[in-house]
Amino acid sequence: MKNTKGITDKDIEQLLGSVLRWGVLLSMAVVILGGSVYLYRHGNDVSDYATFKSQPDFTIQFKAIIGGIFNFRGRAIIQFGIILLIATPIARVFLSAISFVAEKDYLYVGIAVIVLAIITVSMLGGFGG
Amino acid sequence: MSVLLLTLIILIGAYAAGLVGSLTGLGGGVVIIPLLTIALHVDIHYAIGASLVSVIATSSGSAAAYVKEGITNMRLGMFLEIATTSGAIAGAIIAKFLPVNYIAILFGLVLIFSALMSLRKKVERIELRKSELAEKLKLNSSYPSGDQTIQYSVNNVGGGFLMMAFAGVMSGLLGIGSGALKVIAMDGVMRIPFKVSTTTSNFMIGVTAAASAVVYLQRGYIDPGLSMPVVVGVLLGAFTGSKILVHSQSNKLRYFFAVIVTLLASQMIYKGITGSL
Fold first, then answer.
1. Shortest Cα distance from B111 to chain A (angstroms)?
2. If contacts are CB pairs under 8 Å, which of residues 224-263 in chain B contact chain A?
3. Torsion angles phi and psi, residue A56, rounded to 5
4. Is this model's pTM higher than 0.95 or not?
5. Deepest of A29, B33, B84, B115, by most Cβ within 10 A of its Cβ?
6. Cα(A95)–Cα(A14) distance, integer angstroms
């Protein structure tokens, strides 16, 4: 395809592939670490997932999750790993936007920005309530 | 049941779900949700939240390999992600208001449909008719096959876009990747070669699931204690499945799994109708 400033679709493909792979591996490592802490502390508790209950803040609110990590709470660490996992494909879109700028394909810079805008609306739109 | 025992059971179940999902091409999500709700009596909202997370893990993991091979049509994927992510948000909003029974019935129907789709014969055809819109959006591309490069064109961009929005709604509502619906949009409506449509669909699933996962996370549907064994198990199962797939592609095995999945789906529909979920 187009080859401007030395950056090609091939380079973008390699970059995005690496981001996806390392994002998944990193988030899994964090989830497994948090899971070990959680099971060590709560392994003998009685589980109950039969009905939906609201969850503690340290697994829902971002600031509280970060606070929970410093208190070494297993579930907060797992949730941080899950946030890293959710962020992985979003980071992929963000990096493709930058790559398309380098490729001077402004149509696709625009399309990537629209996708990012939709996800931002989803994140901050208060649909969680 | 103690947390430790339940975690181990879910881990094994999720591994099996990931393996079956990968071998049939159905994806881990559609197998783990009935397993959690029917066998372990987990609230369907928790099951959907955990499944969404596992869907992001498996699709990102396999997309990493496909993208590097250069089969994935990145531009087509990015363009259609506008439709799937918007749909996913709509699905996550609908999920809040739709009664649990309807979600279970709808899930069962989509599951049966996906199982039927997985049995269909895969015929590779290359479309070379040029569509003006596809040309403008630079969607036409090529992919490597053996030592040659195959050119192809994309058709019916509008129809495919709408179908993708629908796939996005189902993904956000049911917590699945909607791979079967995405492949229909690309393979059936847009006439893209099968190899390209499956890898590009897989490429889009992660972002689509992420768009609704941020809503589910804030709603408290993503429980860390439950999601942890689900995501680890499904990912490992899918990885094992991807290694097996290379060696054997037995038709009997695919029929066997399709029957099992259909039984699970019927159970979901039955529980939805009788309101025993």
1. 23
2. 224-229, 231-232, 235
3. -60, 150
4. no
5. B84
6. 12
